[in-house]
tRNA pseudouridine synthase B (Arboricoccus pini), 314 residues
Amino acid sequence: MAGRRRRGRPIDAWLVIDKPEGITSTQVVGRVKWITDAAKVGHGGTLDPMATGILPIAMGEATKTVPYIMDARKAYSFTVRFGAATDTDDAEGEVIATSAERPSDDAIEGALPRFIGLIMQRPPRYAAVKIQGERAYDLARRGEDVVLEPRPILVEKLKFVRRVDDDHAEFEMISGKGAYVRSLARDLGEALGCFAHVSTLRRTSVGPFGLAQAISLEALDALVQEETLPQVLVSVATALAGIPAFAVTEPQALRLRSGQSVRVAPRLVGEEAQDGVTLKVTQAGELVAIARLDGAELSPVRVFNLKGAMGARA
């Protein structure tokens, strides 16, 4: 009889990786899985191969909270190269148009307001967006015409930091889900009449995760070798920082974990007690579930069984 397949270590936590340039987010997940031997690993938001910075890695039960990180605000620091458009809207693509025009600092400042707030943005041709079940970048690499419709995105902040030289300028941006820095650079170049693309890109935060928590893949390897991995693991509940918490009794926690609803007194929930509100449910400080409140009924949406290293405390 064939031996049972080895499943890996049970680790329930988030790990914040400072992604290096030149590898994909999927490759980072593979490296983390190999280094830590974690049973289940995923990431909380793709970074382009040329980009560096914050790539939250979900392990074990933390993978259940990935949608909340995908929806979180993200901050970037990036450099725009004026005078050339590329087919990928970044420095890795082929130049498809050039211009001798270069915008003044005042022109740059004057153009930024139109890219702040709720705006319509067309994703790059080489994007992870799906078209009839296929990724846009796969279609583009095959030479097929890729037409992506503009969609609403939120740019909370866009700041012109400094002019590096005639051809380059540095910016900072905070945006919501689905925003592309590459698209913003492309559209800014078009607005300034000079063409543009992203030449460097670094993500500095994703929701509650920032550079202060981030470690390199090399540092991760060293920590595992030293058996000090728990020092850098982040609680599963950190991803749910923006969700109101509600404590339940042990019997209620057992019912929720078994997929059953429980009755609660809405007054105990407080100001958040509105039909349809999502709550982070805890019991004795331990994360139990993500649940929805409907009247006096609290129904589980996601339940947690935190047994692995880290993550058990909310």
